[in-house]
């Protein structure tokens, strides 16, 4: 009976270790990627009053665009107004529209507007339009901007007037986890077969360590 119990414990190691590796895989190789298009934070528009419209054009770097992140300033408070986000294509056609509560926005962090992936977005021009709703002094957000035009593939308009800089924004893209895994291998410049061999060795090592622990526990009992 004791031997049967031992083997039952040992067999449990396999699914546990596989579960651990699966968690690591899904954590480190998600099905999304983010590119920051304008990281410069040098100024802002001040409090965005009701009816103000900000537009930012961008040239997409990849296919499968599925979110736009905007860095907001909340003045470290919970603002009760709303913001309408609209994504337009290069012909001015509305692709996506959403109204978001400014209560959910965090100070000096990206707030992401997510939408169905646009499979053929690479090398295409898009425009992000932001419009304030029910905004008033002391109860609204602001947008962080650069003072100069560091982002040459787009421009920013404030109430129809072209600005010297651009808003601070990023874009999210859907990526298959296998694609992300291959990108990771390319980034560390390691041959795929070598990495898989190392991965298998690590897995065997982990299996043996857990098995050793179980054996010691078994002998102690």
Q: Note the gap between the termini.
A: 13 Å
Number of domains: 2
- From N to C, what is the helix and strand string? HEEEEEEEEEEEEHH
Mean pLDDT: 80
Structural class: alpha+beta
Number of helices: 3
Poorly predicted tracts of residues: 26-30
Computed over alpha carbons, the radius of gyration is: 25 Å
What's the number of extended β-strand segments? 12
- Give me the CATH architecture of the largest domain, please: Sandwich
Name of the CATH superfamily of the largest domain: PHR domain
The name CATH uses for the topology of the largest domain is: Jelly Rolls
What share of the residues does DSSP label as strand, in percent?
25-35%
Biggest sheet overview = 6 strands, antiparallel
**Overall form:** elongated
Classify the helix fraction into a percent range: 25-40%
CATH class of the largest domain: Mainly Beta
List the helices and strands and how they pair.
Layout: H1 2-28, E1 32-36, E2 43-44, E3 53-59, E4 65-73, E5 82-88, E6 94-101, E7 109-118, E8 125-133, E9 142-145, E10 156-158, E11 161-162, E12 169-174, H2 177-188, H3 192-220
Antiparallel strand pairs: 1-12, 2-9, 3-8, 3-10, 4-7, 4-9, 4-12, 5-6, 5-8, 10-11
Helix pairs in contact: 1-3
Describe this structure in words.
The protein has two domains: 2-31 and 177-220, no CATH class; 32-174, Jelly Rolls (Sandwich). The chain is 31% helix and 33% strand. The chain is built from three helices and twelve strands. A hairpin with a 5-residue loop joins β5 (82-88) and β6 (94-101). α1 runs antiparallel to α3.
